[in-house]
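Tutorial, part two.
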Amino acid sequence: MTELGSEPLEPEQDCSASATVDRLVDGVRGKGRILIITHDNPDPDALASAVALRHLLLMGTGEEAVIAFGGVIGRSENRLMVDALELDLVPIGELDFDDYPVVCMVDTQPGTGNNSYPQDRPLHLLIDHHPQRQDYADICWVDVRPQYGASATILFEYLRAQDIYLGTRLATCLFYAIKSETQDLGREWSKADREAYLHLLPLANNQILYRLSHPPVPNDYYSTFHRAIDNATIYGKVLVFNLFQIDNPDLVAELAEFLLRQEEVDYVMGLGWYAGDELISVRTTDPDARLGSVIREMLDGMGTAGGHGMMAGGQIRAVEEDRGSQKELERLLTLRYIKILGQQTEPGVALLEGRN
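Running the prediction step on this input gives:
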């Protein structure tokens, strides 16, 4: 394999793009079983990228890769995506890594804290759209494009460059990933994302897309929304909420997106305690906010984090389960968040009480 670096493929330049992907496939061919790792609690972009890479490698090498994830697939639309599109995934805890001579990673990077692949294990191929966190000189193939809105767009370009047929399921999977990751090309999208979106739209299954956008949810889903709204506090232009103990780690990010719609609020931070760890999601309407850098500074010395300009997340390991400890952590992180954002510290006002 060879290092691709961060230069995007240009699918319309058939010869050079196809030759580039040929080098990736040739580097894997004949090496044995292939493992593809996503980030924990995978979202549509991670799922679609992994499935597209598996299809690319199957077509090019004849080897069917195994896709593994840590955590859970908790969000209703993500579970429906796995079921409706018949995605074949394996919990990472069930695997013996020694069985896989080739290991790939998509939509995440080593050392970021959001994947369950041991950092001391070898990695051979890395494809991601988040900002590159370190020098990956020991990884044979690196394609990191932070200018792209979705990792699925990168994999779409790979498949298109090889002129690989996109069946309805795969096209639907890729389209929904780009749609959800960029909020219908409304957030952090690039020209490449738009081209992929428009190319995939007529190939996707509209009925499945509708079901993914309107999934059925259990009763406790609404109680979680109630809990977030009930304890949300507004500090000037910053809204903070705490879900405390949760059974679904995806809810923190989902509620952060939802509460960002509050008028006169430019920044949101959500917290939730899941399986011993504190999960943090931040969102903004400001395209210049650089939240990935903000949350890494906010959690410096406390946990791991990463993300984009307008959306980011992090985790603090081994947090006390009791509500008092979680509330104290909320106060500390709120002060850090407001300070790093450069916002004025104002008295908090409960969301349901309105503003002074």
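The longest helix spans residues 323-341. In part three we will examine how such features are distributed along the chain.
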